[in-house]
Design a protein that fits this description.
This protein is α/β, with parallel strands linked by helices. The protein has helices at about 1-25, 55-60, 90-105, 175-185, 195-200, 205-210, 230-240, 255-265, 290, 305-325, 325-330, and strands at about 30, 35, 75, 80-85, 105-110, 115-120, 130-140, 145, 160, 170, 215-220, 245-250, 270-280. Helix 4 (about 175-185) packs across helix 10 (about 305-325).
Amino acid sequence: MKERTMPVLRAALLTTLATLPALAQAEPVKVKVFVGSMFEIGEMTGDRAGEFQYWFDDYWSDATPIEVAGAAQPVYCNDDGVCGAVLGMGKVASSASMMAILLNPAFDFSQSYYLLTGVAGTPPSRGTIGSVFWGSWLVDYDLGHRWAEGEVPEGDPLFMPRKGYEAVRLFQLDPALTARAMELSGGVTLVDSEDAKAYRLRYPDEAALAAPSVGVGTHMTGDTFFHGPGLSEEAQYIAKLYEADDYVITEMEAAALAQVIGRLHGTDRILSLRGAVNFDQGNPNETTLAHLDPAPGETAGGFDETLQNIHAVGAAVVDDMVVHWDEWAAGVPAK
């Protein structure tokens, strides 16, 4: 038995040794831009689009998926160094995927920019359905103390920051990078829908009645899907308490992702981009519960149009980075 198995083992060893040079020569993908979306509805392409599909169709339709242990979905990369993945919804799922991807030796993130993107909600006093906002600040909505109305004097805040979370509850994104992104994308033509136009008429706010536009402001990250005028005011209160810009977007991942990226590579190359597919409260004639659970035909409309707007705005920046990488590699180009 031993004499028969030795030639087989020797052949297997020689085959393994022959592949070692090729393995040793495999270089990690040098990532110029990483696009992180949070969910896809079905397939990556060809059906109803979720947050990732327009990005996939534009950048990775021919890409081979790269499986990453610990990540929710594979990573896709093109020859220009643009990579992306669906990270998962919420702080835990998205940040777990991001950490797994960042630590995977298949990728070189030493000079990467990060575009964290997806749909979101907006207060009707600050935005409207279809609008797209770059994040100037990322604020964690959940890290603090809360109590019920009636347990403090009437009119007093119902939230207080918890000590010890100062470094992870608030991130100011690089102002020069955010300003450059706004400059590159501010003139992008946005699409709208008839359903969204009709839905806006339910709100009296000037911002809610306006056509979609590109803006900048604070993105409020909460696993708590807060809703209604009271909690919207609380979110604005938290933004002001932390001396951040006006709260314009409610989402579920960005502050957590910034913490993960920051631990390994810093936060100066992060962009957060969100499009509003809903208001964070009902109209004056609608209860919060009715707005959270709308009857058939009572939804805001404009979901797909907002996805298109997010992609168009974000791609204006991604494409500039790729085309002018010699200017972007060392940092935000000077005007």
